[in-house]
User: Which sequence fits this backbone?
């Protein structure tokens, strides 16, 4: 070992002894060397999907509370969860595969699409929490409705989850689904069974002198039609070609 190597070994050994014998050296008023070596990672984001969806059925409710109403039928299942263990909740309601909801708006009329989802694990409601929420319509074809409100509240320390959204429209359009997202944190109560379930999606028309009948219908998805029409045209051409040869 040459002289330079011997000197380096002595310096390294002395530094090691000093660090092992002394408390962690201060780096600033509240940080130590040991703390500086620990990388604090954010808690992983865990999204809870709410089990709710469209069935594809539409029920005409007629005139109620001064508006013509169609109800887009939904299905919602109970679930077991600890809301304190999740960072976000989401609900995605979609029309059956390959279809869309067409909303026909008569001239001069205006309306709203109201989405309501409620899950509760008990019937006693206490303190209210408010969470931020966002909402959007999926697969819109035509003039896009305008989001009016989106929000979420919890009662009894998170034992109830209520998500609402409202979209305004004045022209006919179609859409394939609704996306709702709620951002926590949520109160923790351990695993709770959310069994009291209700969900409602209502399409309303106002400023009409009389009931025009059902104005929301299930149709083939416009994107699907754009694929099927050329295919059907091609099949018709093949049939004509075969007939001509025969």
Assistant:
């Amino acid at each position: 070992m040459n002289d330079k190597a011997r000197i380096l070994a002595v310096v390294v050994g002395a530094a090691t002894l000093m660090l092992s014998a002394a408390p962690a050296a201060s780096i600033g008023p509240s940080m130590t060397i040991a703390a500086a070596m620990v990388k604090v990672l954010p808690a992983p984001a865990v999204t809870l999907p709410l089990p709710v969806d469209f069935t594809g059925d539409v029920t005409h409710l007629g005139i109620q509370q001064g508006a013509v109403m169609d109800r887009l039928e939904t299905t919602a299942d109970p679930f077991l969860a600890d809301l304190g263990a999740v960072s976000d909740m989401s609900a995605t309601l979609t029309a059956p595969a390959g279809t869309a909801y067409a909303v026909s708006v008569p001239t001069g009329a205006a309306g709203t699409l109201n989405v309501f989802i409620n899950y509760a694990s008990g019937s006693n409601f206490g303190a209210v929490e408010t969470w931020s929420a966002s909402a959007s319509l999926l697969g819109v074809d035509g003039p896009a409705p305008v989001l009016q409100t989106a929000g979420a509240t919890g009662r009894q320390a998170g034992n109830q989850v209520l998500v609402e959204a409202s979209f305004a429209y004045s022209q006919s359009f179609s859409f394939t689904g609704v996306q709702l997202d709620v951002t926590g944190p949520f109160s923790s109560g351990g695993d709770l069974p959310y069994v009291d379930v209700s969900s409602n999606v209502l399409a309303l028309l106002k400023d009409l002198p009389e009931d025009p009948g059902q104005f929301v219908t299930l149709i083939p998805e416009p994107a699907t039609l754009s694929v099927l029409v050329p295919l059907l045209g091609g099949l018709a051409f093949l049939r004509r070609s075969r007939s001509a040869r025969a």
Q: What stands out?
A: The longest helix spans residues 222-245. The longest strand covers residues 52-64. The CA atoms of residues 67 and 135 lie 23 Å apart. Residues 47-228 form one domain.
